[in-house]
Design a protein that fits this description.
389 residues; mainly beta; Pectate Lyase C-like; 19-stranded parallel β-sheet; eleven-stranded parallel β-sheet; 51% strand; Pectate lyase superfamily protein domain-containing protein; Pectin_lyas_fold; PbH1; polygalacturonase activity; cell wall
Length: 389
Amino acid sequence: MDKHLLKAACICFILSFFQSSCNASSYNVVSFGARPDGRTDSSQAFESAWRAACASSSSSMVYIPRGMFMTKPVVFSGPCTSSILFQIDGTLVAPSNYQDMGNSGFWILFTKVSRLTVHGGTIDARGSKFWACRRTGSHCPPGVRSISFLWSSNVAVSGLKSLYSELIHVTVSNCNNIMFEHMNIIAPSRSPNTDGIIIQSSTGVTIKNSLIRTGDDCIAVGPGSKNIWMEKIACGPGHGISIGSLGNSLNEAGVENVTLTNAVFTKTQNGVRIKSWARDSKSYASDVEFRNIVMRAVDNPIIIDQTYCPSNRCPRETSGVEVSNVRYNNIRGTSTTVEAVKFQCSASNPCRGIQMRNIRLTTPNRATTSTCENVRGSASGQVVPRSCL
């Protein structure tokens, strides 16, 4: 058997999301004109290989061998006839000139696909020159998200390393049943808006066994997200793991059934955070659990902020977002600030059903404190700092 077909057969057997008979056809991007020299634009070759795989009547594989492949923005669109394995053994790099990324906002985009597995490899967006442009305040392009999944379902992404995104590393929007595992996401702590993974308007998203070191939120769970499971996540540096921001518009969808378990935060700006704008909205965050978490020198380990405003032009209202049934269980570690727990909830829509159990957050040589505004809830077990609920 051809070695590429053998690899496809083995991986489709191992990865549960890649349902097939393992009679996979292989489409090597080099056969379509891609060159692994890090300079030649391979965009058209990538898209041609994808179209061939997408039209295949049987399960297929798009294969990117070892080497460095430069690609401008590419779109891999469906629907496709059968399941596809997108196997990356090499490295995808962005053009050396960030102006060549265009204005679409996307670099690698999968849209309207189902039964897709993306496995292995590295994507390097070479974002440093773009960040420098933004810091100077000069005329810069809008920037791109490194890899995005839109209007897709039954997707598994495993073993992917994302480096130096211009903006967000991974975006998930209007998707169902998506799994990310063994992700390695890296950008400098001062890189602007380089969130790790952003989820919105999606149901059934799982993120496991992943390391995220970046300049913004490690993971952000946005409006319209339901049934989100995050497990064994190492976050830091970055801004922590957030629900929100919510309530930016009146008829915005809410967030529900979100779990983060077995996570470690290291030198992050926030730990676990729920944030909403101080304006009228029908949005909400409910049935959320943060459990079995270690904080290591985190500025704001536990925070609900319903006056979120990252700029100086802030709305002068109270948040309409309803925050309810949020559980904090077995969270321990160190805070860099005395105020280790802060619940700053809406006066018009107080937080309710907030539960704290077995919390121990300390700071060297000082006693930590907690702050509660417009919040209703309960505490049990050992709770340090002393609960204000």
